[in-house]
Amino acid sequence: MTLAPPLRDAAGIPGRGAGRGSVPDAEGIWKAPEHYSLAATCFPLQRGDADPCFAAHPGGLWAAFTTPEGPASLLVTNRTVPGRAGELRVRAWGDGAASAVESAPAMLGLADDWSAFDDEAHLARLPRLVREARRRNPGLRLPATGRVVDALVPTILEQKVTTLEARRAYRYLVRRHGTPAPGAGHVAPQGLMVAPTAVAWLRIPSWEWHRAGVGPQRSATVMRALRAASGLERLAGLTAVEAAAALQSIPGIGVWTAAEVTQRTHADPDSVSVGDYHLAHFVGYALTGARTDDAGMLRLLEPWRGQRQRIVRLLGLSGVRAPRYGARMTIQDHRGH
């Protein structure tokens, strides 16, 4: 889908830099889709409520990240006016402000086209649970950040461990080896951080990975992937299928990791996180009332090939919770060893 131009052009304001003034270094305003939900759309981008690269804002969201021109702090607010179309206002500070604003519409899901999915004939063929979830969440969009390194590193940290362990490790490493976001403590929230660049990730010593609770297998996978960081970022220009295949050519990156990345970087509407610890059980229970395995999940989702990630996202918003059986994965903590 071609993006409409902003209601106000993204423009740099010379001489400010790094958020030293309250006036943004770049900004843009776009018409928000009807019933648009900023929270639901950007939810997959945040690694939990304590992600140091994101912060809540009344009516919006702060995000900090690196662009090709440098770091940026981005503030997105969703302004709704009764009787009028809503507006998404994007303001940015820092050397990468203009680039960050330019990339914002895709990150906010404005390039994600749900028209075929929302066609009445298509909706009628969906499971009732999915139809109801879409009716309650008409503003959901899939984000496309294009920032492969930013999506890949925390996803590798989530391999074969609990979410709690992975997010704890990611917070530790970002706070220790990232950089304060432009304007943090002034125009941006205190403590807002920009995640390490590929070069900075590669410089993290082995004992810091250990202190973060990241085992040698996962840290080695990060190192292997980021030694070709420039190639990784070029994957943003490929299709989601091509990018996923390229990612899986790196030892230690499989179907699950590639899918989790392209869901965030490419707004991939079809990728399924095969190999997830809970997903197959959840999808099976939601659609049939019984747990299933990865093969069973893929059979259940096959009628909606091309839209399977949309189905999974809506099932996650349906309110259904699959029962847990047996022992849960044990949280390991080797940081003191």
Q: How would you characterize this protein structure?
A:
39% of the residues lie in helices and 13% in strands. It has a five-stranded antiparallel beta sheet with strand order 1-5-4-3-2, covered by helices on one side. A two-stranded antiparallel ribbon has the order 6-7. Helix 11 runs antiparallel to helix 12 (255-265). The protein is globular. The protein starts with 25 loop residues before the first strand and ends in a 21-residue tail after the last helix. The longest helix has 15 residues, at 163-177. Strand 3 (60-67) and strand 4 form a beta hairpin. The chain has a domain at 148-182 and 195-253: Endonuclease III, domain 1. The protein is an alpha+beta fold and 337 residues long. It contains 15 helices and seven strands.
SSE blueprint and pairings:
Elements (H helix, E strand, L loop, with lengths): L25 E6 L6 H5 L11 E4 L2 E8 L2 E12 L2 E10 L3 H11 L12 H5 L3 H9 L11 H10 L5 H15 L1 E2 L12 E2 L3 H6 L2 H6 L4 H11 L2 H6 L5 H8 L7 H11 L13 H10 L5 H8 L6 H9 L21
Antiparallel strand pairs: 1-5, 2-3, 3-4, 4-5, 6-7
Q: What value does the Rg take, in angstroms?
A: 20 Å
The CATH topology of the domain at 148-182 and 195-253, please? Endonuclease III, domain 1
Alpha carbon gap, first and last residue: 52 Å
Based on the structure given, which CATH architecture of the domain at 148-182 and 195-253 is correct? Orthogonal Bundle
Query: In what order do the strands lie side by side in the largest sheet?
Result: 1-5-4-3-2
Q: Any low-confidence stretches, pLDDT <50, length ≥5?
A: 12-20
What is the average per-residue confidence, as pLDDT, rounded to a whole number? 91
CATH superfamily of the domain at 148-182 and 195-253: Hypothetical protein, domain 2
Order of secondary-structure elements: EHEEEEHHHHHEEHHHHHHHHH
The number of distinct β-strands equals 7
Oligomer: single chain
Shape: globular
CATH class category label of the domain at 148-182 and 195-253: Mainly Alpha
Helix share of residues?
Answer: 25-40%
Portion in strands: 5-15%
In DSSP terms, counting alpha (H) and pi (I) runs of 4 or more, how many helices? 15
Structural class of the secondary structure composition?
Answer: alpha+beta
Taking the sheet with the most strands, its summary is: 5 strands, antiparallel
